[in-house]
Amino acid sequence: MSGGSQILRNINYRDDIGPVELLIVIYKECFSAAIPRTYFAGVQRSVFAPRPRCGPHKLRESLPLILFLRNRLKYALTYNEARMICKQRLIKVDGKVRTDMHVIRIDKTDETFRLLYDSKGRYATHRITENEGKFKLCKVVKKAVGPKGVPFVVTHDARTIRYPDPHIKGNVCMVTGGRNMGRVGIVGHREKHPGSFDIVHVKDAVGHSFATRLNNVFIIGRGPKAMVSLPGPTKGVRLTIAEERDRRLAQKRAI
User: Fold this and answer.
1) Reading across the β-sheet that carries 225-226, which strands appear in turn?
2) In terms of CB atoms within 10 Å, which of 62, 63, 67, 216 comes out highest?
3) Which fold has domain 31-134?
4) Mean pLDDT by 10 residues, the chain (255 residues)
5) Model-level pTM greater than 0.85?
6) CB under 8 Å to 88, separation ≥6 — which residues?
7) For the chain, which residues make up each domain, given as ranges?
């Protein structure tokens, strides 16, 4: 912890540091103790952890490929090994080769993954078939009319789609933010609060109801059926502590 402590001492000691310079100092460092809980990184052996690069997604919703290859898939032991895998152009994200830090495809091992949240709000390494990996779901964050009356929508990954189908609707959703992150259910009704956040009420597969903000809702299917396979044995249903205990005991008895 000496390296991280030294940086903190330097920041506190230099009272004359400007706001821009302070921002640069903080930007370059990412402490392993401060990484989001969605990273499933586990216990870090060093003070620092990989930091994702900015792209079409928000920084807090991104995951470094280094952690995906090293901590989850175990295809690399160190940062340099994971970097060499990326530089050999072996990793495809949404069908395109990515060499730096959706649907992730590794041709050499014939594996395809979709990055989704599990029922506890953590990134899950969900294996899918090659046919399912040919498409991805997008969330519309903006709709407008452009020049010459051309309607268009903007998705969460910065795609612009002209002439969208106005009849596309769905009511199966996954929560992508807040305390209910990762839960899946049917959209019930929506409460409008002008000047504040609109609230959406959702009911999961076992009948548990919860509420979240409209911005946290991501539609994943039409009617009661999801268009993508869901990770984990609970399929987006968050169990209570007692239910998790009973499930573990049942698994032990079955062994």
Assistant:
1) 209-213, 199-203, 184-191, 172-175, 217-222, 225-226
2) 67
3) 3.10.290
4) 40 42 38 65 64 70 80 85 85 68 76 87 86 86 92 89 82 91 91 92 91 92 87 88 90 86
5) no
6) none
7) 31-134, 137-168, 169-234
